[in-house]
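Appendix C. Worked example: Phosphotransferase family protein
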Amino acid sequence: MDLDRVSQWMAAHVPDFEGPLRATKFDVGQSNPTFRLDSPSGAYVLRRKPPGVLLKSAHAVDREFRVQQALAGTAVPVPQMLALCDDDTVIGSMFYIMSLVEGASIVDPSMPGAAPERRGAIVSDMIRVLAAIHDVDLEALGLSDYGPPGNYYERQLARWSKQYRASQTEDLPVMEALMDWLESNMPPDDGQRTLVHGDYRIDNLLLEPDGHRVLAVLDWELSTLGHPFADLAGVIMQWQLPPGDEGRGLAGVNRSALGLPSDDAFIDLYCQARGIGRPSGFGFFVAFAFFRMAAILQGVKKRALDGNASNPQKALRLGTFVPRFAELGLEARTAHG
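Step 2, the predicted output written as C-alpha cells:
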C-alpha cells in the first residue's frame, strides 16, 4: 500500500489530518484488510477491499461505511466514520478511514482470566447492543433501502448458495444435504425486518479494557435489512464450536462456573430486552447460520487458492472446516427448540 498516496488523499478529505503515515496491519479478519494508521495528527483505521478479482457484492466497504455513519449517535456504538474513497486509483481498491477506538478485543468467548461477574456483565451488554441494533428506526436513519424486500431467509439461502457454488473447490455431500434441508424447511415470513449485523460475536466487539461495556461494534460487511434471529442464531452457532482461539466457541465449557448463560438463557434474555416472545423452531435459524458460515469459509479458501487472501495460511486452514460446519448445521436442526 502506497502510504504517500494515502497521506495525500487523507490530507484532502480528513479534517485536521497531518502526515506522514505509518501503517500496521491488524492480524484479524479474512475479508477486508484493515490497518492502523499512525500520524502526527493521531491514530486512524483504514479498511479496504482486497486486491484481485472478487465475488460480486462481496467486500462492500462502502456499505460498511454507510451503515456505521448512519448509526452515529444511536444506542449502537460504532467508530466515527471520517472519509470514504471510491477511487480505485489511489491504492488499487475502495477504502474508508475511521477513528481508532482504544478498546479491548476478546477472541475467546470463555474470556480466560476474567472474573465470573465480569463475564456475565459483558454478555449482558452484548445482549443490550444486539437488541439496540434490531430496534433502530430504519426510516429515521435513512436505512429503509439498505436491503431488498421479501423473505430474508429465502433471499439469503439463494445468495449464499450462489456464493458457495462460485467458490466451490470440491464436492461435499454433507453441504448439499444441508442446503436441501434448508430449502425444504423454510419458515414462513413473519414480517420482522430490522437492521442485521450479519456477523455479531464477541470478537467483532471492542470492550472497555477493565469494564464490561461495548465501546464499538466492528465488521459490518455482511450487514443488511433482514430477520433479527439471524444475528441471534449466529451467536448461538458460534458457541457450539470448540473453545480456544481457533474455534472461538464454548462447546464442553462449564458455563455456569464461568458466569456465562446457557444458549436458552441467552435467547430468553435477548427476547426480554426486545419485548418479544421466544421464537419457535429455532433450530432452523442455527442450521442456516452454520450453512452461511460454511459458505463464507469456502470463499476464504478460494481466495487463498487464487492468491488474494488477507492471510493465505490462515485462510487455507479455515477452509478445511467447511464440511464440519455443514455437519454441525445438520445436527442443529432439532436443537434449541
